[in-house]
Amino acid sequence: MKSPIAILRLLLAFALLGCAQAAPERTCRIVFPDRPQEAPKSLQLFDGKKCREVELPSMNLSPVYGLASGAIQLKLLGAEVEDPKDVPADAPSVEVPADCADLILLVSGDPDNKTAPVKLELVDLGSEYFKVGQTLWANRSDKAIEAKLGEQTLSLEPGGSEILDAPASDKGVPTSGYYNATFTYQAQPDAAFEPITEQQWWHDANSRHLGFIVNTGGKLPKIHFYRDFRDPAPSE
Known about the structure:
- By secondary structure, the chain is mainly beta.
- The protein contains 1 helix and 18 strands.
- Helices cover about 10% and strands about 45% of the residues.
- A 4-stranded mixed β-sheet has the order 4-1-7-8, with no helix packed on it. The chain has a 4-stranded antiparallel β-sheet with strand order 3-2-5-6, with no helix packed on it.
């Protein structure tokens, strides 16, 4: 007959095994750069089977959310639904391919959508092409952008995107530390580039970074910069 201590250890082992099996295979974070004041700060994320409330932060990335594996379609809803048949056809959505293991949902405003006043874009964080220590830049403004970021240079047309290596490295290995970040923009085609900002930024060699450049309605485009260290998502 097993002792009470042995039984307790066995139960603990099964509990830990259950937790490991429940860990999601795919993770997601959400960000809403330059979110309008009237836009929602949270919505319901529908994955084809069920809803959950998710945050739509603008100054930082959301918590890590676990998602089901395989090819799925994600939708954002203004209110929770229990039956998939009740999901509005015009709900903002994005297709997630089966080979996309970790992702960012980039949210932008769409006041014409009556279900949820947003639209979605998927940013695939697949390690094969977007590695830890690199930065993904996406220009969502209507201005051409040029930047000097430590050892790297950036040139983006409106709508363009580019992945940059770390701004500093030691024998090809990314290093953490401060670097100079200088941004300019082209107000009109063929015009000289004018300054946006010059700052010192911190680079974390153990994280991926994301930079989004957006219109503000004013003269200068606005730069949003995020660090993504992908902690494990809580189990479903």
